[in-house]
Write a sequence for this structure.
């Protein structure tokens, strides 16, 4: 989900008054939604008519393909005058839902 979607979900409660998003220090990023970890990405659209706002489920239903190896470069000279070292990394990959039974998506209703 996008950061804006996560912010909106933080306000939602169930019929007993419990927040849907729960803080959980054992989760990868510290938050869970219905027991699953929450991953936030700027690449996900915000909640808007016709947009997919959330993917939810077992991430094992997603197949990934790495197109190139991970590249890491240490930038010593660029930050030398600040007594610091910079590190930059990039890689290219693609993903596809392989098992639709494991992943659901929330599509916002149209206008």
């Amino acid at each position: 989900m996008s950061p804006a979607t996560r912010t909106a979900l933080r306000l939602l409660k169930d019929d007993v008054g419990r927040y849907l998003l729960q803080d959980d220090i054992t989760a990868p990023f510290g938050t869970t939604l219905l027991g699953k970890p929450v991953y936030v990405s700027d690449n996900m659209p915000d909640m808007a008519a016709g947009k997919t706002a959330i993917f939810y489920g077992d991430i094992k239903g997603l197949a990934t393909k790495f197109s190139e190896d991970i590249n890491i470069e240490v930038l010593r000279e660029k930050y030398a005058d600040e007594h610091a070292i910079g590190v930059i990394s990039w890689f290219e990959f693609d993903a596809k839902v392989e098992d639709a039974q494991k992943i659901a998506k929330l599509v916002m209703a149209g206008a």
In short: The chain is about 5% helix and 35% strand. The radius of gyration is 19 Å.
